[in-house]
Write a structure and sequence with these properties.
By secondary structure, the protein is mostly helical. It contains 14 helices and two strands. The protein has helices at about 40-50, 60-75, 85-95, 110-130, 135-150, 155-180, 185-200, 205-210, 215-230, 230-260, 275-290, 300-315, 320-335, 345-350, and strands at about 5, 30. A two-stranded antiparallel ribbon has the order 1-2.
């Protein structure tokens, strides 16, 4: 059987804001082998998978998915009977298209228009497939994309606008986590997106002031997944979250040190609160990161070494500090041997 070809086309991101007709481009996309050409929704999903497995440097396949989805909707006599996979695939394609969208004028859609359309499509699906895990996670991912978009700016107004997206994403994730059973992989993927948000928003304190429970909530979510799967990947993810939580305290301690100077006259003074918090989170981070070290790449060993050095710098001179530096040197040496970089100068300074 020859490969079925799907016409490429681009529909407007949101039907509500459609102001002009956009004609499909004259191009074709080949479906992967083994896909039943009579299964229209399955073909849509297969097309989207080809995009996910590609370099993601062109929207061509995504245009084809959206065009096919619009065609299915036009030809359907009972849109409410369309399967959840249809809405999930359509929503994901719209969300991926947001990465290519550029707002040029009032007649063209920008990234936020595609994000809104992705949320709307998943919501429409949930009206007919209440509690469907895939649709809940699709909407959560679209809302996280809204957070990422808004928190690119440190302006209070922009960060304020990110909060509803963030809370909606959390609500959908929690509903999905309760209903997912043993299929945890997609949940973990979404948790990684949440972690990325907090890691990249750490320089925007206003966001964390508005959702101060964010770190605690995410820590609890990762621990809940660890209770079901004690894999190194989950330990690493939690360790990286702890590293992100330690970072602002480490930066504060470094600023205090630079301000006060490096004199040893104040050795008897108690540690600052920032120093105590930095040590707390770095210690927790290392506990998790070291659980994921087996067969780790050199770059990962360097990350663990950096955390050990940061923790050692916060310790008083003594056996504990010496042991941390020695462990960091060991990891940097292995990382260098694995081709992760040249750490010879750092190794020399610490030895």
């Amino acid at each position: 059987m020859g490969a079925k070809r799907a016409p490429q086309g681009l529909s407007k991101a949101s039907k509500r804001s459609k102001t002009e007709k956009v004609e499909p481009e004259e191009a074709t996309i080949e479906l992967p082998d083994g896909i039943d050409p009579e299964d229209e929704v399955g073909a849509m999903a297969a097309l989207l998978d080809t995009y996910r497995q590609s370099d993601r440097d062109s929207p061509k396949v995504l245009h084809a998915v959206v065009h096919e989805a619009d065609r299915i909707l036009r030809n359907s006599t009972a849109p409410e009977a369309l399967p959840a996979q249809f809405h999930q695939t359509y929503s994901a394609a719209l969300l991926y298209l947001s990465a290519f969208a550029k707002k040029k004028n009032d007649k063209t859609e920008g990234p936020e228009d595609f994000i809104a359309a992705a949320i709307e499509r998943a919501s429409l699906g949930l009206e007919h497939h209440t509690g469907h895990v895939g649709l809940l996670l699709a909407r959560a991912e679209a809302n996280i994309a809204g957070v990422e978009r808004k928190t690119r700016s440190a302006k209070a107004k922009s960060i304020e606008a990110a909060i509803p997206y963030y809370r909606a994403a959390r609500e959908d994730y929690e509903a999905a986590a309760s209903a997912a059973g043993d299929a945890r992989g997609p949940l973990v993927d979404v948790l990684r997106r949440f972690s990325k948000v907090l890691e990249t928003t750490v320089d925007a304190p206003y966001f964390l002031q508005k959702v101060p429970e964010s770190y605690d909530w995410l820590e609890g979510a990762w621990k809940a997944e660890q209770a079901k799967d004690a894999s190194p990947a989950l330990a690493r993810a939690l360790g990286e979250l702890y590293l992100a939580r330690a970072q602002p305290f480490v930066a504060q301690v470094e600023a205090e040190y630079d301000e006060e100077g490096s004199d040893d006259d104040d050795d008897d003074e108690p540690e600052s609160e920032a120093a105590q918090e930095a040590q707390r989170w770095l210690t927790l981070a290392l506990e998790q990161l070291q659980r994921a070290e087996a067969d780790a790449a050199g770059e990962y060993l360097a990350v663990v070494a950096e955390a050990q050095i940061s923790l050692a710098n916060l310790k008083d001179e003594g056996d504990e500090q010496t042991a941390l530096y020695a462990a960091a040197v060991e990891r940097l040496t292995r990382a260098q041997e694995l081709g992760a970089g040249d750490y010879s100068e750092m190794i020399s300074e610490l030895s």
